Each structure stands twice: as C-alpha cells, then as structure tokens.
C-alpha cells in the first residue's frame, strides 16, 4: 500500500523504511537462501519477478511493507539503505470483511542480527503503526512450527496460540488489542520517531524512483 511510501520510523535498534526498487537486489539475494525459503514458506523468484512483487506490494491496498534497517549504521549517513538492510516486516489485511484484522510477518534475514532484539523492536513498531495508522485491532501471526524463536518472541508480546495446522506445519497466534494492550504497545514504542523518508536519508547514489 502507498500510505507508507514516504514514511520512515526510527527506533533505537531498527529503522523501518518503505520497500522500494532500490532494496530489491539485496532482498532477492536473501531469498536465495534455502533456510529463509523454508522459514517464510516462499518459493525462489527471478530478479525480475522480485521487482514485480515489490511493485505489487507497493500498490496493493491490503499489504503494508517496511524494510528493516540497522539504525546505527543508517544514521552514519555513510551507506545506502541496501548496506544497512537486515530484514523486513509486513502487515497483510487478509479478511476483506474485517479491515481491523492484520496478519503480521517479521523476517530478520541477516543471521548476525538474530537474537539481539532487532526483530522484537521491528515487530512492536509495525504493530504500533498498524494500530495508529491503519486501524488494526487484531493481529495474527502464522509461523512454521520449526521456527521456535519466532513463536517464542510473539508469545512474549502477549500473542496466544489459537491453532496448529499439522498439514502445513504452521502455528497461528493471535492478539486482540484491548485498551490495555494498546496503551502497553504505545508505551513500548514511545521512543520511535516518524520521519519523512525522502528528507531523512537518500540512498547512496540518490533516491531511485520506483519503476
């Protein structure tokens, strides 16, 4: 969706920026990993297909995607986004009859950034954005049973396991955002600064216009 096309969310560990064509080569490189294909239940795409997917995610009204950057490296102003990328975080509006339900996905693609709180902060930031900007009141996360680290993280964020699909070997977790949960979420993300992406930082070589 285009609502976040000029939004940068800067946290302590991570900065979230809209997924643009400049990010596609690095993203494509990540997704050649059999481990990531397995963990995200994804099929490998060609580079051109990856560009098409990026355009689709940008334009589709039911998908909100941010690339996760290392805040410290990005703030140095010495490298473009592609050199600071660590993963992505997505919200999918999966129920046309209930636009307040969002399916959330987080991927920390760079192994050296896992287990260090980057995924947790990125997830909290996306949840806060979903609640305040998109009107989300219910979150679901569908995670492969073997991805114990991700399941554990979501449970620590107060998600509850609601079902297990033995065919797809997938666990579904859910969080209903009560007033108490909303206040907790906003408290957890009160340090996050919302900026204009184009003003905050131009990628190396200038801002690439999406195809």
What does this structure look like?
Pfam families: Acetyltransf_3 (PF13302). Its EC number is 2.3.1.308. Keywords: Acyltransferase, Transferase. GO terms for molecular function: tubulin N-terminal-methionine acetyltransferase activity. Residues 14-160 form the N-acetyltransferase domain. The protein has 211 residues and is of the alpha+beta class. The protein has a single domain, classed as Gcn5-related N-acetyltransferase (GNAT) (Aminopeptidase, 3-Layer(aba) Sandwich). 34% of the residues lie in helices and 27% in strands. It is built from 8 helices and 9 strands. The protein has a 9-stranded mixed sheet, sandwiched between helices. Strand 4 (85-92) and strand 5 (101-108) form a beta hairpin. Helix 1 crosses helix 3 and helix 5 (118-133) packs across helix 7 (179-188). The protein is globular. The two termini are 15 Å apart.
Which terms summarize this structure?
211 residues; alpha+beta; Aminopeptidase; nine-stranded mixed β-sheet; 8 helices; globular
Strand residues, percent: 25-35%
Count of the separate structural domains: 1
Q: What is the global morphology?
A: globular
Q: What is the N-to-C succession of helices and strands?
A: EEHHHEHEEHEHEEHEH
Keywords: Acyltransferase, Transferase
Protein name: Alpha/beta-tubulin-N-acetyltransferase 9
Function: N-acetyltransferase that mediates the acetylation of the N-terminal residues of alpha- and beta-tubulin.
EC number: 2.3.1.308
């Amino acid at each position: 969706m285009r609502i976040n096309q000029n939004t940068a969310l800067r946290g302590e560990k991570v900065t979230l920026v809209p997924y643009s064509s400049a990010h596609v080569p690095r993203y494509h490189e990540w997704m050649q990993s059999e481990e990531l294909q397995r963990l995200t239940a994804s099929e490998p795409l060609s580079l051109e297909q990856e560009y098409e997917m990026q355009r689709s995610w940008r334009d589709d009204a039911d998908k909100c995607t941010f690339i996760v950057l290392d805040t410290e490296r990005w703030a140095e102003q010495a490298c473009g986004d592609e050199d600071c990328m660590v993963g992505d975080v997505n919200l999918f509006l999966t129920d046309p009859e209930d636009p307040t339900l969002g399916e959330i996905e987080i991927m920390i693609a760079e192994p050296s950034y896992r287990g260090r709180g980057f995924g947790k902060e990125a997830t909290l930031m996306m949840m806060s954005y979903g609640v305040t900007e998109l009107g989300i009141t219910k979150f679901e996360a569908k995670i492969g049973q073997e991805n114990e680290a991700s399941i554990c993280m979501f449970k620590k964020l107060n998600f509850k396991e609601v079902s297990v699909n033995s065919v797809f070997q997938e666990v579904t977790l859910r969080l209903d955002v009560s007033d108490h949960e909303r206040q907790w979420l906003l408290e957890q993300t009160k340090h996050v600064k919302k900026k204009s992406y184009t003003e905050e930082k131009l990628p190396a070589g200038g801002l690439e216009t999406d195809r």
